[in-house]
Amino acid sequence: MLERLKKKWGINSNLQLTIIFIVFAITGSASVKLGAPILEYFQFTADRFKDLPFPNFWYYSLRLVLIFPIYQILLIVVGTVFFQHKFFWEFEKKMLKKLFTYKRKK
């Protein structure tokens, strides 16, 4: 399985693959951790949605929407810190292209 990932991503060494996994782990954890304080800064706490039906749904939906761009930015920043800027820049471009390009199946 790891060999398939290395081939798919154009990676030659296990060290680089390990570094990439570490970057993904740090970025995912950091983006989730940063979501709550940023929402609190803008005064979007869970209490603010208490009058709406399904208040937790609205709060966590907003939090997920916020986490997505934080994750994208952190992925590039943390990847650069670990000297993997080129890989993560290309990864981001592919991911965003797939996300925003709709292809209708025939």
Write the layout of secondary structure elements.
Elements: H1 2-9, H2 14-41, H3 55-81, H4 85-100
Descriptive overview:
The protein has one domain. With 106 residues, it is an all-alpha fold. It has helices at residues 2-9, 14-41, 55-81, 85-100.
Proportion of β residues? under 5%
Overall spatial form? extended
| Quantity of strands, as a count | 0
Whole-number mean pLDDT: 89
Our Rg estimate from Cα atoms comes to: 17 Å
Number of helices: 4
Residue share in helix: over 70%
Uncertain runs with pLDDT below 50, 5 residues or more? none
Give, in order, the helices and strands: HHHH
Q: In the residues, how many domains can be counted?
A: 1
Question: First CA to last CA: what distance?
Answer: 31 Å
Structural class: mainly alpha
How many strands, what sense, and barrel or not for the largest sheet? none
Overview features:
single chain; 106 residues; mainly alpha; 4 helices; 0% strand; extended
Summarize the structure.
With 106 residues, the protein is mainly α. It is built from 4 helices and no strands.
